[in-house]
Amino acid sequence: MGRILWDCVAVILLGDLVTSREPEIRNNVSIQIINFNYERTQVKWNISDYLMKKNLTFLYGLDKASPSKQCPHYILDQGYTVGCVFKTGDNRLTYLLKGEDGIIERKNVRLSNYLKPNSPTNLNFTWREDSVTIKCPDLPIRGLSYEIQYKSTFDLEWQLNMNKICSIKIDGLNSEKCYFFRARVITRMAIYGSKTYPSDWSPVTHWRRSKLEDSCSEAAEKLSPKYIYLITSLVILLAIFLLFLFLRKSARIKKLLMPVVPDPKYSFPGLFDYHQGNFQEWIQDTENVTSPTKVEHLEQECVVEEGHIEELPKKKTKDKVGKAIQEYPKLNEDNLSSNQASFGLPQGSNTICLGDLNFVMNDNMYVVL
């Protein structure tokens, strides 16, 4: 028994001696460690471009053991190892990451500092008018806090409630609104430090009037009567305004696209009433009935009889300024009748007829009516 124990110690020391003699490669390496609820641990590495296209070896040991265990399950990316997943508990982890040229990373950590708890399950909602109490089974891990977030379809951000146990009461809810609820578990920094991870969110549930709904998008959230009345009024006013515009525009458009065509029924009386649209019968009947119309109010031809137009003699006088002007002597009925036949039509003059009166005018005369 003592011999076997001694052989085991010698193998461990020899392994440590061999690994200690391997050269360490200084590279920009980023290691991510996640302990999933003390059930399994995931270690992922991200190193420089030089070693990205090379397979690296991951060795680990638990509770102060030497890093001699090979990774049971590698995470691959484009055929190259980028991480390792293995079973653990609340242990200390010693790991070794090495490549073909030597050791890249060696470290000893406490896995509780990288804890990520499971999501809460079996959420139970108990409604009381405008409040709800949410409960769920507590996880068998100390130092946790339970976080409930909720919001309605009218809220832009989630509201937060927290407790050290999974029993949280929320007040001030509106029974007319539909609410979203989700929950998660986080670790307390005073116990686990700042490198831990919160759990994933539980599935979102929808509640309205203490009833579980599939979603909150039905009928625009079933708005309250106040909002329904306001929206309905606005829609009615908008519809009336659009109808008024349509009626105003449609008359113009109809007139442009379909102008009014005169009805021949009123232009040709009797054509459709008595002759059924037979134009030949209508025109014959019309010719037999219609009598020649008298032409009235025609302008009489202006006939100038020689010897009946008299040109008034011109008399030159001077105005006050001394300019010569032409004056015509005043005529009376006797003078006009006696001299009417003594003069002919003067040259360069025009004759204008107004009813039964004839006027002789030249370029220097005008008539005011």
Q: List the strand order in the largest sheet.
A: 5-6-2-1-9
Question: Helix/strand-derived class?
Answer: alpha+beta
How large is the share of residues in beta strands? 25-35%
Structural Rg: 58 Å
Question: Percent of residues in helical segments?
Answer: 10-25%
* Averaged pLDDT: 75
Overall geometry: elongated
Number of strands: 21
Key features of this structure:
369 residues; alpha+beta; 5-stranded mixed beta sheet; 5-stranded antiparallel beta sheet; 24% helix; elongated; disordered N terminus
Describe the structure.
The chain has 369 residues and is of the alpha+beta class. The chain contains eight helices and 21 strands. A five-stranded mixed sheet has the order 5-6-2-1-9, with no helix packed on it. A five-stranded antiparallel sheet has the order 13-12-15-16-17.
Task: Write a short abstract of this structure.
With 369 residues, the chain is of the alpha+beta class. It has eight helices and 21 strands. The strands form six sheets. Strands 5-6-2-1-9 form a five-stranded mixed β-sheet, with no helix packed on it. Strands 13-12-15-16-17 form a five-stranded antiparallel β-sheet.
Helices, strands, pairings?
Layout lengths: L1 H20 L8 E7 L3 E7 L2 H4 L4 E6 L6 E2 L2 E5 L2 E8 L4 E7 L4 E8 L4 E2 L7 E5 L2 E5 L8 E9 L6 E5 L3 E4 L7 E10 L1 H4 L12 E4 L2 E3 L5 H4 L2 H33 L6 H4 L11 H11 L25 E4 L5 E4 L5 H7 L10 E5 L2 E5 L8
Parallel strand pairs: 1-9
Antiparallel strand pairs: 1-2, 2-6, 3-4, 3-7, 5-6, 7-8, 10-11, 11-14, 12-13, 12-15, 15-16, 16-17, 18-19, 20-21
